Amino acid sequence: MSPGRRRTGLLAATATVTLLLDVLSKILAVMILEGHPPVELLGGGLYLVVYRNSGAAFSMATGLTWLLTLIALGVVVVIVRLAPRLRSAGWAFGLGLVLGGALGNLVDRLLRAPGPLRGHVVDFLSLLAPDGSVWPVFNLADSAIVCGGAVLVLLAATGRDFDGTRGNRPSGGPESGGIRSGAPE
Q1: Which residues pair with 168 in a beta bridge?
Q2: The pTM is what?
């Protein structure tokens, strides 16, 4: 199997597991938590409580669910189009987390009330307070997007490109063994 296919497989597997965990956790949160008082865990470090969010992360863009749906669709399309050119396991993993998280929240926006393209995302994790007053209430998809984004920023900052090359290493330098790194001169 070619490196590109392996990386695309890693991206797909990461996105699939992320999506499944997100959807399952939201189903369970709604079934078990909705209509009940918050559940305190870790001595008040984490609370489980269901909130319906019509906005983006941190409740930004509330009421613009249709726009957020289109943005999520755009993110999905860009990642899927980039996938065949991936040669980096790190990029495949990071993009898989972002893709799975985007799809998880997109499923809510498409399938949950009040209706298609207007659905509210289920958030159920609240740090340090049961009402999101310390940190906004979030879900596993949000966590995957943030963690995936952090992986991608770290890879980019260290010069690792999605195609497996090292982008900011001088070509022909001693650290590359005198071999060109693939970076344009």
Answers
A1: none
A2: 0.85
